Protein backbone atom coordinates (compact mmCIF):
# COMPACT_ATOMS: atom_id res chain seq x y z
CA UNK A 1 0.00 0.00 0.00
CA UNK A 2 1.59 3.33 -1.00
CA UNK A 3 2.06 6.11 1.56
CA UNK A 4 -0.75 8.62 1.96
CA UNK A 5 -3.58 6.50 0.67
CA UNK A 6 -6.69 5.34 2.41
CA UNK A 7 -7.16 1.62 2.35
CA UNK A 8 -9.85 -0.80 3.37
CA UNK A 9 -8.48 -4.10 4.64
CA UNK A 10 -9.92 -7.30 5.98
CA UNK A 11 -7.90 -9.57 8.20
CA UNK A 12 -6.31 -12.84 7.11
CA UNK A 13 -8.39 -15.92 7.71
CA UNK A 14 -5.83 -17.58 9.93
CA UNK A 15 -6.66 -15.17 12.74
CA UNK A 16 -9.54 -16.03 15.06
CA UNK A 17 -13.14 -15.78 13.87
CA UNK A 18 -13.81 -12.56 15.78
CA UNK A 19 -10.75 -10.94 14.22
CA UNK A 20 -11.59 -12.02 10.69
CA UNK A 21 -14.91 -10.20 10.85
CA UNK A 22 -13.23 -6.83 11.40
CA UNK A 23 -12.45 -4.29 8.70
CA UNK A 24 -10.10 -1.36 9.24
CA UNK A 25 -10.11 2.05 7.59
CA UNK A 26 -6.82 3.95 7.41
CA UNK A 27 -7.15 7.71 6.93
CA UNK A 28 -4.30 10.04 5.95
CA UNK A 29 -4.85 12.18 9.05
CA UNK A 30 -4.49 9.16 11.27
CA UNK A 31 -1.58 7.72 9.28
CA UNK A 32 0.43 10.88 9.71
CA UNK A 33 0.27 10.62 13.48
CA UNK A 34 1.79 7.14 13.70
CA UNK A 35 5.53 6.87 14.41
CA UNK A 36 7.75 5.52 11.66
CA UNK A 37 8.63 2.64 13.93
CA UNK A 38 5.22 1.17 13.10
CA UNK A 39 6.17 0.61 9.48
CA UNK A 40 4.98 -2.72 8.27
CA UNK A 41 7.42 -5.57 8.51
CA UNK A 42 7.33 -8.72 6.40
CA UNK A 43 5.28 -11.44 8.12
CA UNK A 44 7.53 -13.06 10.76
CA UNK A 45 8.18 -16.81 10.70
CA UNK A 46 6.38 -18.81 13.41
CA UNK A 47 8.27 -17.65 16.51
CA UNK A 48 9.93 -19.95 19.07
CA UNK A 49 8.93 -19.43 22.70
CA UNK A 50 11.64 -16.86 23.72
CA UNK A 51 10.83 -14.67 20.70
CA UNK A 52 7.15 -14.70 21.70
CA UNK A 53 8.12 -13.07 24.99
CA UNK A 54 10.00 -10.28 23.21
CA UNK A 55 7.00 -9.64 20.98
CA UNK A 56 4.76 -9.36 24.02
CA UNK A 57 6.93 -6.60 25.42
CA UNK A 58 6.92 -4.71 22.11
CA UNK A 59 3.20 -5.06 21.86
CA UNK A 60 2.70 -3.44 25.26
CA UNK A 61 4.94 -0.54 24.27
CA UNK A 62 3.10 -0.23 20.99
CA UNK A 63 -0.27 -0.08 22.72
CA UNK A 64 0.90 2.67 25.03
CA UNK A 65 2.27 4.69 22.12
CA UNK A 66 -0.84 4.22 20.04
CA UNK A 67 -3.33 4.87 22.83
CA UNK A 68 -3.81 8.54 22.01
CA UNK A 69 -4.38 7.97 18.31
CA UNK A 70 -7.65 6.12 18.43
CA UNK A 71 -10.60 8.05 17.02
CA UNK A 72 -14.19 7.22 16.12
CA UNK A 73 -13.77 3.52 16.64
CA UNK A 74 -11.09 3.41 13.94
CA UNK A 75 -7.35 3.62 14.06
CA UNK A 76 -4.60 3.50 11.54
CA UNK A 77 -1.19 2.05 10.97
CA UNK A 78 1.42 3.48 8.62
CA UNK A 79 2.41 1.14 5.89
CA UNK A 80 5.62 1.53 3.94
CA UNK A 81 5.30 -1.52 1.80
CA UNK A 82 2.63 -3.26 -0.20
CA UNK A 83 1.97 -5.99 2.37
CA UNK A 84 0.46 -5.83 5.87
CA UNK A 85 1.66 -8.45 8.31
CA UNK A 86 -0.71 -10.57 10.33
CA UNK A 87 1.15 -9.56 13.48
CA UNK A 88 0.53 -5.90 12.73
CA UNK A 89 -3.14 -6.46 12.07
CA UNK A 90 -3.48 -8.48 15.24
CA UNK A 91 -1.83 -5.60 17.09
CA UNK A 92 -4.30 -3.23 15.47
CA UNK A 93 -7.20 -5.35 16.58
CA UNK A 94 -5.97 -5.47 20.19
CA UNK A 95 -5.50 -1.71 20.14
CA UNK A 96 -9.06 -1.20 18.97
CA UNK A 97 -10.41 -3.43 21.72
CA UNK A 98 -8.23 -1.59 24.26
CA UNK A 99 -9.66 1.77 23.27
CA UNK A 100 -13.22 0.42 23.12
CA UNK A 101 -12.80 -0.90 26.66
CA UNK A 102 -11.66 2.54 27.79
CA UNK A 103 -14.76 4.08 26.22
CA UNK A 104 -17.00 1.49 27.84
CA UNK A 105 -15.63 2.54 31.22
CA UNK A 106 -16.38 6.24 30.69
CA UNK A 107 -20.13 6.39 30.25
CA UNK A 108 -20.61 9.32 32.61
CA UNK A 109 -17.65 11.50 31.64
CA UNK A 110 -18.25 15.08 32.80
CA UNK A 111 -21.47 14.24 34.67
CA UNK A 112 -22.31 15.21 38.23
CA UNK A 113 -24.37 12.81 40.36
CA UNK A 114 -25.96 13.13 43.78
CA UNK A 115 -26.74 9.80 45.47
CA UNK A 116 -28.68 9.61 48.72
CA UNK A 117 -27.94 6.74 51.09
CA UNK A 118 -24.52 6.21 49.52
CA UNK A 119 -22.48 5.89 52.71
CA UNK A 120 -22.73 2.11 52.38
CA UNK A 121 -24.50 -0.73 50.57
CA UNK A 122 -26.06 -0.29 47.14
CA UNK A 123 -25.54 3.48 47.13
CA UNK A 124 -21.82 3.18 47.87
CA UNK A 125 -21.37 0.55 45.16
CA UNK A 126 -23.18 2.79 42.68
CA UNK A 127 -21.09 5.83 43.67
CA UNK A 128 -17.92 3.83 42.98
CA UNK A 129 -19.28 2.65 39.61
CA UNK A 130 -20.27 6.18 38.58
CA UNK A 131 -16.83 7.52 39.52
CA UNK A 132 -15.09 4.76 37.56
CA UNK A 133 -17.15 5.93 34.61
CA UNK A 134 -16.00 9.53 34.85
CA UNK A 135 -18.64 11.13 37.10
CA UNK A 136 -18.23 13.37 40.10
CA UNK A 137 -20.40 12.05 42.91
CA UNK A 138 -21.88 13.77 45.94
CA UNK A 139 -22.73 11.26 48.67
CA UNK A 140 -25.70 12.43 50.77
CA UNK A 141 -26.33 10.36 53.86
CA UNK A 142 -27.56 10.59 57.42
CA UNK A 143 -24.49 8.64 58.66
CA UNK A 144 -21.92 11.40 58.83
CA UNK A 145 -18.82 9.43 59.83
CA UNK A 146 -19.46 6.50 57.51
CA UNK A 147 -20.30 8.85 54.65
CA UNK A 148 -17.13 10.90 55.10
CA UNK A 149 -15.02 7.72 55.22
CA UNK A 150 -16.74 6.42 52.07
CA UNK A 151 -16.00 9.68 50.24
CA UNK A 152 -12.37 9.45 51.34
CA UNK A 153 -12.15 5.86 50.07
CA UNK A 154 -13.67 6.77 46.69
CA UNK A 155 -11.14 9.55 46.08
CA UNK A 156 -11.07 13.08 44.75
CA UNK A 157 -14.22 12.73 42.63
CA UNK A 158 -16.35 11.89 45.66
CA UNK A 159 -17.56 14.32 48.30
CA UNK A 160 -19.92 14.02 51.23
CA UNK A 161 -22.80 16.13 52.44
CA UNK A 162 -24.79 15.31 55.57
CA UNK A 163 -28.44 14.80 54.70
CA UNK A 164 -31.53 13.34 56.30
CA UNK A 165 -33.86 12.79 53.34
CA UNK A 166 -36.92 13.11 55.55
CA UNK A 167 -35.98 16.80 55.96
CA UNK A 168 -36.75 18.76 52.81
CA UNK A 169 -34.23 21.47 53.72
CA UNK A 170 -31.45 18.83 53.87
CA UNK A 171 -32.32 17.59 50.38
CA UNK A 172 -32.49 21.14 49.07
CA UNK A 173 -29.07 21.91 50.61
CA UNK A 174 -27.55 18.73 49.14
CA UNK A 175 -28.75 19.68 45.64
CA UNK A 176 -27.44 23.22 46.06
CA UNK A 177 -24.12 21.86 47.33
CA UNK A 178 -23.76 19.69 44.19
CA UNK A 179 -24.51 22.64 41.91
CA UNK A 180 -22.30 25.15 43.75
CA UNK A 181 -19.40 22.67 43.93
CA UNK A 182 -19.59 21.25 40.42
CA UNK A 183 -21.67 23.78 38.47
CA UNK A 184 -24.51 21.40 37.58
CA UNK A 185 -26.50 18.32 38.56
CA UNK A 186 -26.97 15.69 35.85
CA UNK A 187 -28.02 12.64 37.86
CA UNK A 188 -30.11 12.50 41.05
CA UNK A 189 -30.34 9.02 42.56
CA UNK A 190 -32.88 8.79 45.41
CA UNK A 191 -31.58 5.58 46.95
CA UNK A 192 -31.83 6.10 50.73
CA UNK A 193 -34.33 3.79 52.36
CA UNK A 194 -35.00 1.92 55.58
CA UNK A 195 -36.67 -1.34 56.47
CA UNK A 196 -39.53 -1.46 58.92
CA UNK A 197 -39.91 -3.41 62.10
CA UNK A 198 -43.61 -3.47 62.78
CA UNK A 199 -45.93 -6.37 63.68
CA UNK A 200 -46.78 -8.39 60.56
CA UNK A 201 -50.58 -8.09 60.68
CA UNK A 202 -52.28 -4.99 59.25
CA UNK A 203 -54.58 -5.11 62.27
CA UNK A 204 -51.60 -4.30 64.49
CA UNK A 205 -50.09 -1.71 62.16
CA UNK A 206 -48.28 0.98 64.09
CA UNK A 207 -49.13 4.12 62.16
CA UNK A 208 -46.42 6.17 63.85
CA UNK A 209 -43.83 3.65 62.61
CA UNK A 210 -45.58 3.68 59.23
CA UNK A 211 -45.25 7.48 59.02
CA UNK A 212 -41.53 7.30 59.83
CA UNK A 213 -40.80 4.80 57.05
CA UNK A 214 -42.95 6.77 54.62
CA UNK A 215 -41.09 9.98 55.54
CA UNK A 216 -37.82 8.42 54.32
CA UNK A 217 -38.77 5.92 51.62
CA UNK A 218 -41.52 7.97 49.97
CA UNK A 219 -41.36 11.59 51.11
CA UNK A 220 -37.55 11.56 50.91
CA UNK A 221 -37.65 10.36 47.29
CA UNK A 222 -40.35 12.89 46.38
CA UNK A 223 -38.28 15.69 47.93
CA UNK A 224 -35.24 14.49 45.95
CA UNK A 225 -37.23 14.56 42.72
CA UNK A 226 -38.63 18.01 43.54
CA UNK A 227 -35.28 19.66 44.22
CA UNK A 228 -33.43 17.89 41.41
CA UNK A 229 -36.15 19.12 39.03
CA UNK A 230 -35.66 22.66 40.36
CA UNK A 231 -32.11 22.71 38.96
CA UNK A 232 -32.62 20.36 35.99
CA UNK A 233 -35.65 22.04 34.38
CA UNK A 234 -33.74 25.26 33.55
CA UNK A 235 -31.12 23.13 31.76
CA UNK A 236 -33.81 21.02 30.05
CA UNK A 237 -31.83 17.87 30.80
CA UNK A 238 -31.22 15.41 33.59
CA UNK A 239 -31.70 11.91 34.87
CA UNK A 240 -33.54 10.98 38.07
CA UNK A 241 -33.33 7.49 39.56
CA UNK A 242 -34.97 5.92 42.61
CA UNK A 243 -34.49 2.59 44.33
CA UNK A 244 -37.78 0.74 44.58
CA UNK A 245 -37.96 -3.02 45.26
CA UNK A 246 -39.57 -6.27 44.13
CA UNK A 247 -41.53 -6.00 47.38
CA UNK A 248 -43.34 -3.04 45.81
CA UNK A 249 -44.38 -5.17 42.84
CA UNK A 250 -45.89 -8.20 44.58
CA UNK A 251 -47.66 -8.74 47.87
CA UNK A 252 -46.31 -11.04 50.52
CA UNK A 253 -42.57 -10.39 50.13
CA UNK A 254 -42.16 -7.93 53.02
CA UNK A 255 -44.10 -6.18 55.73
CA UNK A 256 -46.99 -4.00 54.56
CA UNK A 257 -45.30 -0.74 55.48
CA UNK A 258 -42.17 -1.40 53.45
CA UNK A 259 -44.07 -2.86 50.48
CA UNK A 260 -46.43 0.10 50.39
CA UNK A 261 -43.54 2.58 50.35
CA UNK A 262 -41.74 0.77 47.54
CA UNK A 263 -44.86 0.44 45.44
CA UNK A 264 -45.28 4.20 45.92
CA UNK A 265 -41.80 4.74 44.50
CA UNK A 266 -42.75 2.85 41.32
CA UNK A 267 -45.91 4.96 41.07
CA UNK A 268 -44.19 8.29 41.72
CA UNK A 269 -41.66 7.61 38.97
CA UNK A 270 -44.42 7.17 36.40
CA UNK A 271 -46.33 10.21 37.63
CA UNK A 272 -43.35 12.53 37.60
CA UNK A 273 -41.92 11.16 34.34
CA UNK A 274 -45.16 12.27 32.67
CA UNK A 275 -44.39 15.90 33.52
CA UNK A 276 -40.61 15.95 33.29
CA UNK A 277 -40.43 14.36 29.82
CA UNK A 278 -41.45 17.79 28.50
CA UNK A 279 -38.21 19.15 29.94
CA UNK A 280 -35.92 16.44 28.60
CA UNK A 281 -35.58 14.87 32.05
CA UNK A 282 -35.78 11.08 32.34
CA UNK A 283 -37.16 9.48 35.53
CA UNK A 284 -36.74 5.77 36.25
CA UNK A 285 -36.48 3.36 39.16
CA UNK A 286 -34.76 0.09 39.89
CA UNK A 287 -36.40 -2.79 41.72
CA UNK A 288 -33.79 -5.14 43.17
CA UNK A 289 -34.34 -8.58 44.61
CA UNK A 290 -33.09 -9.14 48.20
CA UNK A 291 -29.40 -8.39 48.65
CA UNK A 292 -27.49 -9.21 51.86
CA UNK A 293 -26.41 -5.64 52.66
CA UNK A 294 -26.42 -4.41 56.28
CA UNK A 295 -30.02 -3.29 55.63
CA UNK A 296 -31.28 -6.80 54.86
CA UNK A 297 -29.03 -8.61 57.33
CA UNK A 298 -30.12 -6.44 60.26
CA UNK A 299 -33.75 -7.16 59.47
CA UNK A 300 -33.13 -10.90 59.03
CA UNK A 301 -31.34 -11.03 62.37
CA UNK A 302 -34.62 -10.09 64.06
CA UNK A 303 -36.27 -13.16 62.57
CA UNK A 304 -33.31 -15.56 62.94
CA UNK A 305 -31.34 -14.34 65.96
CA UNK A 306 -29.20 -17.48 66.19
CA UNK A 307 -27.72 -17.24 62.68
CA UNK A 308 -24.56 -15.38 61.72
CA UNK A 309 -24.23 -13.00 58.76
CA UNK A 310 -22.85 -15.71 56.44
CA UNK A 311 -25.77 -18.03 57.09
CA UNK A 312 -28.29 -15.20 56.65
CA UNK A 313 -26.65 -14.15 53.37
CA UNK A 314 -26.90 -17.76 52.20
CA UNK A 315 -30.62 -17.81 53.01
CA UNK A 316 -31.18 -14.61 51.05
CA UNK A 317 -29.28 -15.93 48.05
CA UNK A 318 -31.10 -19.27 48.16
CA UNK A 319 -34.42 -17.44 47.88
CA UNK A 320 -33.50 -16.32 44.34
CA UNK A 321 -34.65 -18.29 41.29
CA UNK A 322 -31.77 -17.76 38.87
CA UNK A 323 -29.36 -20.62 39.27
CA UNK A 324 -25.65 -19.82 39.24
CA UNK A 325 -25.96 -16.13 40.19
CA UNK A 326 -26.81 -14.09 43.28
CA UNK A 327 -28.23 -10.59 43.45
CA UNK A 328 -25.44 -8.22 44.53
CA UNK A 329 -25.03 -4.45 44.97
CA UNK A 330 -23.00 -4.40 41.75
CA UNK A 331 -26.06 -5.64 39.81
CA UNK A 332 -28.00 -2.59 40.96
CA UNK A 333 -25.01 -0.32 40.30
CA UNK A 334 -24.80 -1.67 36.74
CA UNK A 335 -28.52 -1.04 36.23
CA UNK A 336 -28.13 2.50 37.58
CA UNK A 337 -25.15 3.13 35.31
CA UNK A 338 -27.16 1.98 32.32
CA UNK A 339 -30.15 4.17 33.18
CA UNK A 340 -27.95 7.18 33.94
CA UNK A 341 -25.93 6.88 30.75
CA UNK A 342 -26.78 7.81 27.18
CA UNK A 343 -27.35 4.09 26.53
CA UNK A 344 -30.78 4.68 28.10
CA UNK A 345 -31.39 8.08 26.46
CA UNK A 346 -34.94 7.13 25.39
CA UNK A 347 -35.96 5.29 28.54
CA UNK A 348 -38.20 7.07 31.04
CA UNK A 349 -41.01 6.11 33.41
CA UNK A 350 -39.51 2.63 33.62
CA UNK A 351 -39.08 0.22 36.51
CA UNK A 352 -35.93 -1.80 35.78
CA UNK A 353 -36.36 -5.05 37.69
CA UNK A 354 -33.12 -6.68 38.85
CA UNK A 355 -34.43 -9.95 40.24
CA UNK A 356 -33.17 -12.82 38.08
CA UNK A 357 -36.74 -13.35 36.86
CA UNK A 358 -38.25 -13.78 40.35
CA UNK A 359 -41.30 -11.55 39.84
CA UNK A 360 -42.01 -12.97 36.38
CA UNK A 361 -42.08 -16.58 37.44
CA UNK A 362 -44.64 -18.64 39.32
CA UNK A 363 -44.36 -22.39 38.92
CA UNK A 364 -47.32 -24.74 38.98
CA UNK A 365 -46.81 -27.14 41.84
CA UNK A 366 -48.52 -30.45 41.05
CA UNK A 367 -46.67 -32.28 43.78
CA UNK A 368 -49.73 -32.36 46.03
CA UNK A 369 -52.15 -33.64 43.31
N1 LIG B 1 -30.75 -4.79 50.37
C1 LIG B 1 -31.89 -5.21 49.85
O1 LIG B 1 -32.29 -6.38 49.98
C2 LIG B 1 -32.75 -4.25 49.06
C3 LIG B 1 -33.64 -4.80 48.12
C4 LIG B 1 -34.45 -3.93 47.41
C5 LIG B 1 -34.37 -2.57 47.61
N2 LIG B 1 -33.48 -2.07 48.53
C6 LIG B 1 -33.43 -0.62 48.71
O2 LIG B 1 -32.15 -0.20 48.32
C7 LIG B 1 -31.82 1.01 48.97
C8 LIG B 1 -30.44 0.89 49.60
O3 LIG B 1 -30.46 -0.20 50.49
P1 LIG B 1 -29.14 -0.94 51.01
O4 LIG B 1 -29.44 -2.39 50.96
O5 LIG B 1 -27.95 -0.42 50.33
O6 LIG B 1 -29.20 -0.49 52.54
P2 LIG B 1 -28.06 0.12 53.52
O7 LIG B 1 -28.71 0.21 54.85
O8 LIG B 1 -26.82 -0.63 53.36
O9 LIG B 1 -27.84 1.58 52.92
C9 LIG B 1 -28.84 2.56 53.05
C10 LIG B 1 -28.20 3.90 53.29
O10 LIG B 1 -29.24 4.85 53.45
C11 LIG B 1 -28.88 5.70 54.52
N3 LIG B 1 -30.06 6.31 55.11
C12 LIG B 1 -30.99 5.74 55.89
N4 LIG B 1 -31.88 6.64 56.28
C13 LIG B 1 -31.52 7.82 55.73
C14 LIG B 1 -32.04 9.13 55.77
N5 LIG B 1 -33.15 9.42 56.48
N6 LIG B 1 -31.42 10.09 55.06
C15 LIG B 1 -30.30 9.82 54.37
N7 LIG B 1 -29.75 8.60 54.31
C16 LIG B 1 -30.36 7.61 54.98
C17 LIG B 1 -28.14 4.81 55.48
O11 LIG B 1 -27.32 5.55 56.37
C18 LIG B 1 -27.34 3.93 54.54
O12 LIG B 1 -26.08 4.48 54.27
C19 LIG B 1 -32.95 1.25 49.99
O13 LIG B 1 -33.86 2.16 49.43
C20 LIG B 1 -33.60 -0.11 50.10
O14 LIG B 1 -34.95 0.00 50.48
C21 LIG B 1 -32.67 -2.88 49.25
TrEMBL record:
Keywords: Lipid metabolism, NAD, Oxidoreductase
Gene3D superfamilies: NAD(P)-binding Rossmann-like Domain (3.40.50.720)
Molecular-function annotations in GO: oxidoreductase activity, acting on the CH-OH group of donors, NAD or NADP as acceptor
Gene Ontology biological-process entries: lipid metabolic process
Organism superkingdom: Eukaryota
InterPro entries per record: NAD(P)-bd_dom_sf, Sc_DH/Rdtase_CS, SDR_fam
Chain spans, region Disordered: 36-56
Protein family membership: Belongs to the short-chain dehydrogenases/reductases (SDR) family.
Protein name: Uncharacterized protein
The organism of origin for this protein: Coffea canephora (Robusta coffee)
